[in-house]
Amino acid sequence: MRATTRVATMAAFVLTAAAALPLRAQDTVKVERPTGELITRAQIEEVKASNAHQVIEQLHSNWLVSRIPSPGNRATSKVDTSKASYVTDVQASGRSNPGENGGIQVYLDGSRLGGIDELKSLRPADIYNIRRINGVDAQARFGIGHGAGVIYVSTIGNRGTP
Prior knowledge:
This protein is an alpha+beta fold. Helix content is about 30%, strand content about 15%. The protein contains five helices and five strands, in the order αβαααβββαβ. The protein has helices at about 1-20, 40-45, 50-60, 90-95, 135-140; strands at about 35-40, 105-110, 110-115, 125-135, 150-155. A hairpin with a 2-residue loop joins strand 2 (about 105-110) and strand 3. It is elongated and about 80 Å long. The chain starts with a helix and ends in a 7-residue tail after the last strand. The model is unreliable at about 30-35 and about 70-100 (pLDDT under 50).
């Protein structure tokens, strides 16, 4: 009986000690959390569009909508894609440049282009993928002024991700 008790005690001790040991970096598995939605090269090739703005309008038109509440009324500003392709928050905040500090920002291979009007200058044939990064993750990656989110375009030559 004593031998069984010793074995049980020893097993409990070993299990407790093993659980208390810190994990080393090579023992952990890194799980990357998705930070946005993606339009792939295959999807871009399937649509008939002459620029990146049209690609997004056809595949994910909701990406062209700012999710930042206006300072005065907490209402969501929306894009009227038939007239303008940027967030209009001039009345609520007094800002005159919708591409700065509050509107959706566009990045091309890591360089900031400006507001979503810049998508009209990008040819679909040159694009590898387009990623939408939500406001919280965009502010963490790119800093203040990205609360409405980022549309990150990777070209075929630079297949990088943000």
